[in-house]
Amino acid sequence: MRRTLLVAVGLFAVGGGWGQRLPLRLSAQEQGQRLARALAGSDFVVYGRMREGTGVAQRLTPEERMRIWEAEGLGGFHGASLFRLDVTETLCRRGDSVGVEVQDRPAARPARSADPKELAMVIPDSAPMYEDDLEIERYIVGRSYLLFAEKFPEGDKLTRTYKLSPDADYYRAFRREEGVIELPKGEQQLARVRELCEAVRQPRLEMKLGMLNQLRGTGDDVLDSAADELIRILQPPKKDASER
């Protein structure tokens, strides 16, 4: 199913919201596991305000435009939606939730000063509305979001296809709607993420595990489950006797 780009003054929206849907469908344990995997799998976990949204056209030569027009008419042209999020705070990022073999090498950990001031989120018009029972992410300009962002795969192909700067990084939500939580509705989830990120941002593995273990006794089943899953992710796999 293809979508039509929608642009309106003060409002720009494309396609869901993790914070509103998951509690209706998943157990607390499953919610926590998904939360931990999203945190570990994202390049950045941030919250901030969506500043703007615009439509971006394809890069087409005059000959390509004419060929599409003659074959399909206006419906043959497809672009992308570009959103810019002003980042209020970077909670954690890829590299925070890795194991001791990387984290104990100080040079492998980027400086916090490299945290982004904004994120450019791209949704191609060709993206399906639903994939693996997950709806495409939705943003509305002027609203605030907790966002799990991963760098767009094949960034070079993206900038060749659409009129986007080849010098910028572009992102998408981790697992589509799961990676977008509107605020203030998702304040409880933001509080959980803040505690989990505070734990995984510790400089050494034993410190990370110690803080995560403390989170397992809070009485919040989702947070308990997320802490358990992050402990599993952080622990280096044990070697078999034959490998020693």
Describe the structure.
This protein is an alpha+beta fold. It has one domain. It contains 8 helices and 8 strands, in the order H-H-E-H-E-H-E-E-E-E-H-E-E-H-H-H. A hairpin with a 2-residue loop joins strand 4 and strand 5. Helix 2 (28-41) packs across helix 8, helix 6 packs antiparallel against helix 7 and helix 7 (205-215) packs antiparallel against helix 8 (221-234). The longest helix is centred in the N-terminal third of the chain and has 14 residues, at 28-41. The radius of gyration is 20 Å and the shape is globular. It starts with 17 loop residues before the first helix and ends in a 10-residue tail after the last helix.
Domains (count): 1
Element-level helix/strand string = HHEHEHEEEEHEEHHH
Mean pLDDT: 75
* H/I helix tally: 8
The biggest sheet, with number of strands, parallel, antiparallel or mixed sense and barrel status, is: 6 strands, antiparallel
Classify the secondary structure makeup into a structural class.
alpha+beta
Number of strands: 8
Structure summarized in a few sentences:
The chain is α+β, with helices and mostly antiparallel strands.
Question: What are the salient characteristics of this protein?
Answer:
single chain; 244 residues; alpha+beta; six-stranded antiparallel beta sheet; two-stranded antiparallel ribbon; disordered N terminus
List the helices and strands and how they pair.
Layout (H helix, E strand, L loop, with lengths): L17 H8 L2 H14 L2 E13 L5 H11 L7 E14 L6 H4 L14 E7 L5 E2 L2 E2 L8 E8 L3 H7 L9 E3 L6 E4 L3 H14 L4 H11 L5 H14 L10
Antiparallel strand pairs: 1-2, 1-6, 2-3, 4-5, 6-7, 6-8
